[in-house]
Amino acid sequence: MNSRYTGLVVRFVLAGVLLLAGWQMLAHGSTTEAQRARESADLIADYTPTCDGKTMGRRDTCLVFGGSGDEGGSYQHMTDRYAAANSPEKLAERDRNWRVTGTVALGIGGLTLLFFILSLIEAVRFGLGQPQEATLSYQRRIVGLFVAVGMAVGGVALIGEVGNFWSWLLAVAGVLFTAGALASLVSAWRTRVGRPRWAKKHGYAYEHFNKDLMDRLGWSNVRPYAGGVVTGTHRDRAFLVFDYAEKDARHTGLVLGLPDEVPPLVVEAQEKMGARLLNGTAQHWANHATQVVAAADRHYPWAFKASGKTIWAKYDEFISPSGKRLSKRLDGLHRVGTDLVALPPS
C-alpha cells in the first residue's frame, strides 16, 4: 500500500470519526430548559449518599481524613452538595461544554473532509502510483493550517469553559501544529510556485515530477523519484536542482557540472569550532588539503561532494529554499568547483 493511498484512507476515516463524534456531542448538549429541569430532579431524587461504599442514613455523618475536605460531611450536606452540582444551571453549563466541543470537532472534521477531497482530486490528477510527498500540494497544506488553527482556537475556547487537561492539550497541540503547518505551507509554496517562477525568470526548464531521476544519477539509499526539478545552465555550467526523499526526510539537491574531472571528494560543513573535515581517497586531495579547505571556507560553508565532472550538495534546512538562495548556493558550488579544478596535479 503506497503512502498516497494510505493518506487518503486515514483522512477519510479521521473525517468520519470527527464528524460523527461532533454530531453526537452537539446532540448530547442540545437539551431544552424543561429537559434539564426534569433530568436534574430525577438525578437528585435517585441520589443517596454513600460513605466508604456503604449507604448512609439521614442521621449519619461521613468523616474523611485527608483529601480536599469536601468529600465527607453529614447526610444533608452531601445531598445538598450533589443537588447543587446537578442543578439545571450546572447541567446547562455541561451542555454548553458539549456544544463547544462538538462544534470544534465538526469544524475540524469538515476541514479534514475537505483535506481528503483535495487529496483525492490530486490523486486523480497525478495518479495513486505517484508518491504523495512528491507533489507538495500547497492547497492541502492550507487546509492543514486551518485544521491546526481550529484545534488551537477550540482548545482556547475549552480552556475558558472547562479548563481541564484535555483542553490545554488541544490548545498546545493546535499551536504547535499551526507553526508546523505554516512552515510546511511556506516550503511547499516555494517549491510548487516559487521554483517554477525562478526557473522561468532565468530561462531554465522546470519539471514537476521525475519518477527515476535519482536512479539515473546513481544516488543510493534514496527514493527513485524527484520533484520540483529544474535544469539549465548556470554561468556556463549545466546544473540540476530537485527535491528528493531520503528515508522520511526531504532534501533539496543541487548538482553542478565541472569543466574537468576531479577525484572523489567529500567536504563536511563548516563548524564554529574545530577544523573542517574532508574525505578523499586520492592522494591528490591529501596533497592539497589546505587549499581545498580554504576554497570551501571561502565559497561554500556547507557540506558538498565532488567526483568526475560533477559537484553536488544538499540543502538540509526545514523550509525549502527560495530561488535567491538556490542561486547563491549554485554560485558557491561554481566558485569552489573552479578552485578545485584549478589545483595543480599531484
UniProtKB/TrEMBL annotation:
The chain crosses the membrane at residues 100-121, 142-159, 165-189. Keywords: Membrane, Transmembrane, Transmembrane helix. This is Uncharacterized protein. It comes from Dactylosporangium siamense. The lineage of its organism: Bacteria, Bacillati, Actinomycetota, Actinomycetes, Micromonosporales.
